[in-house]
Amino acid sequence: MKAAGCSTHRVVKEVDCSECAVRNCWEPWTREGTHAQKTGSGTTRKTTRGEDRRIVWQALLDSTVTRSTIRADVGVAIVSQTISRHLSEVNLKSKRPFRALPLTPEHRQLRLQWC
Fold first, then answer.
1. What is the structure's pLDDT at 16?
2. What pLDDT score was predicted for residue 38?
3. In contact, 80 and 48? CB cutoff 8 Å
4. Which CA distances in Å does 35 have to 1, 3, 7, 29?
5. DSSP reduced 3-state for 42
6. How many whole angstroms separate alpha carbon 55 and alpha carbon 30?
7. pTM greater than 0.85 (yes/no)
8. Quick one: which H or E segment has residue 64?
């Protein structure tokens, strides 16, 4: 509509969106000839998809492997939090052994009788 000569105000009424949204679409189009979305904010990824798969694969192979061992094997300068995040993305969580078996009241009574 803007290319056809319509005003921004008319485009806003026709499309039912904010004036700011119309300007944000029109300005890149007139400057660059394209309406490509900007890349997201935040830091760039430090690992490739293959390295992500390798992190998960190592955790699946050996449940006792540590994050520092995984980091050394992958060979990329990443922090432990990155490894934890990759593992949590595939629903792998740390497994801690029970300190003691959970006992029902019936089990407790039987153990007391046995003693």
1. 85
2. 63
3. no
4. 15, 13, 19, 5
5. coil
6. 44
7. no
8. none
Task: Determine the pLDDT at residue 44.
Answer: 78
Residues 59 and 70 sit within 8 Å (Cβ to Cβ): yes
| Residue type at 108 in one-letter notation | R
Measured CA distances, 88 to 13, 21, 56, 64, 81 (Å): 45, 36, 10, 16, 10
Residue 70 tokens read as 């995984």
pLDDT of 57 > 70? The answer is: yes
pLDDT score for 109: 92
Q: What pLDDT, on a 0 to 100 scale, did the predictor assign at position 13?
A: 86
User: If you search the block for the tokens 């006992």, which residue do you land on?
Assistant: 103
Cα distances (Å, whole numbers) of residue 108 to 82, 88, 98, 105, 113: 43, 36, 17, 5, 9
